[in-house]
Design goal:
20 helices, globular, FeFe-hyd_mat_HydG, alpha/beta, 3 domains, 471 residues, binds iron/sulfur cluster, nine-stranded parallel sheet, TIM Barrel
Length: 471
């Protein structure tokens, strides 16, 4: 039976509740009065339930959808301004004992070379990432208790934080590894991770069991309840995501929001981020084999609706998506993008892009300098900020600040100062010129005169060689 507070996945992601929700949404998809009420509620910026949001997802009335898109853009602006946080994935190991049918790292794939970075290789990758200008990483590894035990992941985190090359530093390591025990989550927390990210892949249990036929990941409940264990282990920033294309998107959307509602109901804090991946081509994987693939239009609709349903949750898009798609989704709600990503193990030190060992094909293959310039050309401020995590503003402390809009007083100046560091240390002459003009234009938009003054002083100090200023 559906119970948002239950600790059993079958109850908080309840199949009957999702089916009832979809039937309700179908029955009301042209109910203008109800749709208007839901949109009015969304305008309060307090979010929507999975049922309300599902009605909007089913709705096909052009004027109502136009209102939804406009509201998503407005909420994006209200909460995130014109800032976009930048990160890069770092693949540590592609050894994996699971059989996920959509991923080239599945155990039975004999085409790809298996590789696990040594600590020296991790250090080299980190130096290459620092030399691009990255400050925030998401580490990724397959599940393999022999090759990638938790001790290996912890060693890698230590190595990453220890490398200080020139003016570079990785200031936040987010972790995307398989579901694990409370004790292991506690060890990750103690190692100083930022967000723990685990994609659900699909909330449809029957499909999940078929798509994960072998390996520990086959256990749907253990996987789905991982965020509860992570929070019990003290990690209070967790990141959700489904792999759109595996199952019917409307089912996934309802499941995703139910998961967010569950975390809020039980732990008092919803997901820190939601990622938006879609099934992509890769070695041994043909996306056409999955008949639930979604169009760019539906993808945009999902993005806008997640934005208005969970306004305080960061939204992430990767280089799986093309520049065009990324441009559209940035407006509708995305707050973080990856840049210059390599999705192979050791990819940042290799001259050529090693297509045969990538986890998925990268559509957006531009350099970080090009991504930074592209964002600024569209009026965004690329941000390398990691301040909240380092000031201890995580979990409910972060959410309280966010809900009271206080966070706005930190993000904008932090974005400008971290962008300036990037321009000083890593940018091409053209990007530097564009960026400096943008920073000068943006400083007067900081509400507090005092903060403006501090930012100007810190920018001078950055020119003289100091780094790492933050509010
Ligand atoms: S999705 Fe993750 S767990 Fe599954 S095969 Fe790929 S690396 Fe392994
Ligand atoms: S101040 Fe906090 S919320 Fe704002 S960009 Fe920095 S880390 Fe993110």
């Amino acid at each position: 039976m559906y119970d948002v507070k239950s600790m059993c996945a079958d109850d908080f992601i309840n199949d009957d509740e999702i089916r009832d929700t979809l039937a309700y949404a179908d029955a009301h998809k042209a109910d203008v009065e109800l749709i208007d009420q839901i949109i009015e509620k969304a305008k309060l910026r307090k979010g929507l339930t999975h049922r309300e949001a599902s009605v909007l997802l089913a709705c096909e009335l052009p004027d109502k959808l136009a209102e939804v898109y406009e509201l998503a853009e407005q909420i994006k602006l209200d909460f995130y301004g014109n800032r976009i946080v930048i990160f890069a994935p770092l693949y540590l190991s592609n050894y994996c004992v699971n059989g996920c049918v959509y991923c080239p790292y599945h155990m039975k794939n004999k085409h790809i070379a298996r590789k696990k970075l040594t600590q020296e290789e991790v250090a080299r990758e980190v130096i290459a990432l620092q030399d691009m200008g990255h400050k925030r990483l998401a580490i990724e590894a397959g599940e393999d208790p022999v090759n990638n035990p938790i001790e290996y992941i912890l060693d890698c985190i230590n190595t990453i934080y220890s490398i200080k090359h020139k003016n570079g530093a990785i200031r936040r390591v987010n972790v995307n590894i398989a579901a694990t025990t409370v004790e292991n989550y506690r060890r990750l927390k103690d190692a100083g991770i930022g967000t723990y990210i685990l994609f659900q892949e699909t909330y449809h249990k029957e499909s999940y069991l078929k798509l994960h036929p072998t390996g520990p990941k086959h256990d749907y409940n253990y996987h789905t309840e991982a965020m509860d264990r992570a929070m019990e282990g003290g990690i209070d920033d967790v990141g959700l995501g489904v792999l759109f294309g595996l199952e019917l998107y409307r089912y996934e959307f309802a499941g995703l929001l139910m998961h967010a509602e569950h975390l809020e109901a039980v732990h008092g804090v919803g997901p820190h981020t939601i990622s938006m991946p879609r099934v992509k081509h890769a070695d041994d994987i043909d996306p056409n084999a999955f008949d639930n693939s979604i169009s760019d239009e539906i993808f945009a609709k999902l993005c806008a609706l997640i934005r208005i349903a969970v306004p305080y949750t960061g939204m992430i898009i990767s280089t799986r998506e093309s520049q065009d798609v990324r441009e559209k989704l940035l407006r509708l709600g995305i707050s973080q993008v990856s840049g210059a990503s390599r999705t192979s193990v050791g990819g940042y030190c290799e001259e050529e892009r090693p297509h045969d060992t990538e986890q998925f094909d990268v559509s957006d293959q531009r350099t970080l300098d090009e991504v930074v310039c592209w964002l600024m050309d569209m009026g965004y401020i690329p941000s390398f900020c990691t301040a909240c995590y380092r000031e201890g503003r995580t979990g409910d402390r972060f959410m309280q600040l966010c809900k009271s809009k206080q966070i706005q007083n930190c993000c904008h100046p932090n974005a400008l100062m971290t962008l300036d560091e990037y321009l000083e240390d890593y940018a091409s002459p053209h990007t530097r010129e564009v960026g400096r003009a943008l920073i000068q234009k943006e400083i007067p938009t900081i509400p507090s005169q005092k903060v403006q003054q501090i930012v100007r002083e810190n920018l001078d100090k950055i020119k003289q060689g100091s780094r790492d200023f933050r509010f």
